[in-house]
Amino acid sequence: MNNFQTTGLKILSVLLICICTAIPAGAEEAYELDEICVVSSPIIEGNVVDRYAGQKTMVSEDQVDNLNAQDMTAALRKTPGVNISRYNPVGSFGGGEGGTVFIRGMGSSRPGSEIKVYIDDVPMYMSIWNHPLMDLMSIDTARSIEVYKSPQPQNFGNAVAAVNIIPKCKITKGVTSKAEIAGGSYDTAIGTLESGGRFENFDYYIGGGYRHSNGHRDHSEGETGDVFSRFGYQINNAWNVYFFGLYSDNFAKDPGEQGADPSEREGTYETSAYLTSLTLSNRYDKAGGYLKIYRNAGKGDWLDQPADTEGVREDLYNNFEFYGIKAKESFRFWEGGEIVTGLDWEYTGGDYKAYYSDGSTDHWDGDDFTMVSPYTAISHEFGSKDSLQITPSAGVRYYDNSAFGEEWSPHAGVLLGFDSWTCHAGYSRGVVFPGLDVIVFSEEVIPVLGESWKDLDPEIMDHYEAGVSCTFGKFAHADVTWFYNNGKDRYVFVTSPSAPPVYDNVEEYVTKGLEASVSVNPIDDLALFFGGTFMRADPSDLPYAPESTFSAGLSWRFLQVFTLNIDAQYVNDMYVNSQARRATAENSEKVDNYTVLNSKLSYAFELNSSDVHGTKGTVFVAGENMTDTDYEYRPGYPMPGINGMAGVNLTF
């Protein structure tokens, strides 16, 4: 534990002790809590379809709390269409099977990934190997999480799916602070502290968190820590500006395959990064949008890993950097119509150094490239929902990558609305450019690849989707979505007996399926959720693409002061591990199907002392894998059996 994280945990502990010791003996008297109308929806907040027929799934801060999720993978583990991997209770080891998310079978390509991750719409991933590092996606910053399961050129580019964290901010006037401390199995310790305020035209939100666990197996220790801030100013009725900053510092260890030689363990993966963004936004009757400038940089250091030479260990220090500009404006020049215009410009760079236990060293001086990506879209609403409303749309995004050339990404869609029913259908093209990974592989890892990377084209995925949703008053909401993804030009290196290996765009794949979910509120104090995904993949050994998954959740408030949250998931057997960038590569490792049940019971209280007036809190106990199921995300890496956590949080 470094000094910063130790100090942070001490501050949290002292704060909680001070508040609790301020409670006089009389605080045990009976009191009444403010009435809560409806409990939070379990699992997800809901699915949202924009006027361009693009759908996203929202997971709010409430769902994160209900799931007792301590990181991004845990927060999304029950989201329909999403699968996860991990080794440890706390911390993600690297950016592959050690801890990441997969969306409708996408995201397993290594090096590289079809999925991009963002915080405040700013890219946050390892540029050198071109894939996410989930420990950098601080869950403490999240007011909500957006999951885009398909290409949506009107919202993002250079990916076929995306995850974006919307940072916390203070909406109402006044000051609110929160603190939480918890502990549990495997010497797990958790502490968070945050405060937000709004005064006239100024608002702020600052906070941080620390998590540590020794893990359920030898050498499965992990730790995450972060601090963040958001400062905003309302210039006038139309213009607003805010600054967001984040620093994150984490590590996770590889426990190794059960029963294998300990020397085969992959060591420790350390990550750290800082992110800054400045956003100027506007909102008028006929227009609205924003201008964002950003920069973030960090590292993903893979330490004490086995080298290619037997008996030699390697420390690999990877550095990444992004900076850029995002601009977007929507114009409503006529009744029912909208035109969106935008432009993204991004710089990507990175380098690495390697040190070996035999005294030798290696380094890659690095490389960089830039990409400019303007886009536009148009839509128009005909009719009204009282009778029938039809909203057709179309648009296109253009890419100009300094290393890999140009490409276009068109999309078109239609919305039909009638009363409480909404239907959507659309087509969109996903474009994924190669990253620095192809350069470093060609120059350092497999030098015989030569300059073949310069001839690569971006990967293309043609996406088709149709769905229907219906709201049944306050009682229920249901969604059904059909999707079909046709991927081509996946870049791999191709070997030949008569020639050296080269990079080429030769691989294809298809994923197709159906997602369905229903949220039910039979009474104000009870919320239920059921969801399922049915999917087929070609090739059939595509990793993390199970044929079926089901999730369910329950949130129930009873006796006014107790809340019970239960979530469960079934995952069909599936192929796992990274999808290698090698032509005709086959995946042979599979894990069995499993069902996991988790729960959380909370007791709400209010401190009625004059010294701590207005302070509320909850005491909670949470259990994971309540049925003690044997399951794993990678063969030989068993996940924890039944385990628990208890804690207290205060709002004042």
In a nutshell, what does this entry contain?
The protein has 652 residues and is mainly beta. The chain has helices spanning 3-21, 61-66, 72-76, 436-445, and strands spanning 46-49, 55-60, 82-86, 99-103, 109-110, 115-119, 122-123, 142-148, 161-167, 174-184, 188-199, 202-213, 222-234, 239-253, 268-283, 287-306, 313-331, 337-356, 361-380, 382-384, 388-401, 405-418, 421-432, 459-472, 476-496, 499-523, 526-538, 548-558, 562-571, 574-575, 579-580, 590-591, 594-607, 615-624, 643-651. The protein is 6% helix and 58% strand.
For the biggest sheet, the summary is: 22 strands, antiparallel, barrel
Mean pLDDT: 92
Q: Beta-strand percentage?
A: over 45%
Any idea of the CATH topology?
A: Maltoporin, Chain A
Number of structurally distinct domains: 1
Number of helices: 4
| Amino- and carboxy-terminal Cα gap | 29 Å
Which class of secondary structure composition applies to the elements? mainly beta
Helix content: under 10%
Strand tally, please?
35
**Sequence stretches where pLDDT stays below 50 over 5 or more residues:** 1-37
Radius of gyration, in angstroms, nearest whole number = 25 Å
Q: Can you say what the CATH homologous superfamily is?
A: TonB-dependent receptor, beta-barrel domain
Name of the CATH first level: Mainly Beta
CATH architecture: Beta Barrel
* Inertia-based shape: globular
